[in-house]
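=== RUN LOG ===
request id: a7f3
mode: sequence -> structure
chains: 1
length: 212
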Amino acid sequence: MASASAIPKNKWAEIGELYKSGLPMRAVAEQHKVSIDAVTYILRKTGVSRRTLSEASRISFESKKPSFSLRKVRPPRALEIDLIGAMLYWAEGYKTEKASGVDFANSDPNMVELFMRFLRERYALDSKRLYCQIYYYADQDIDAITRFWSKKLALTPRSFRYPYRNHKVKAGSKQLQYGVVHIRYNDKKLLRDVLNLVESYRQKYCVGGGVV
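=== RESULT ===
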């Protein structure tokens, strides 16, 4: 790769603009057929600040193509399903910035089935990123519980991973017949879309209150 001297000084501003637009330093270097050190030198000489690690991570995240898409053809009840799904996630979903994607948890079979219907009817998903995790009690049959949820949610048994067994159950304590199931989808952009949907309904129907 050539050095910075290979790029005329009247082109240095272009290097800075490409970098500030969010293009990775390596891509800028490849585009101008110079070394990364040359790009670093030009940025320093032209007073362009280097991105922080968090800024670089954000730009990298935004540049990635989502693993899902919004369905273009939807049933007549689409708006109703969207509202139901948003409210369910607002109540029972994991919503913090640390979340790596959608995580909805509940023990009510019908409620979980309805949330799964929302995901399937609103989005075209990558099946490899969708999985379920079951939390169950020590004296319960995880295979039987998995079969139940597999049939209820129309998922293969392979979609159920990393079951968590509760070893601290006291004799005579009330148990959840089918444990608690988490529906997880590993894409933070899907979480953002769901939370934006929740926020749109909050703004439409709530008076005051904080953001989601």
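=== NOTES ===
The two ends are 49 Å apart (CA to CA).
The helical segments are 12-20, 25-32, 36-45, 53-63, 78-92, 109-122, 142-153, 188-205.
=== END ===
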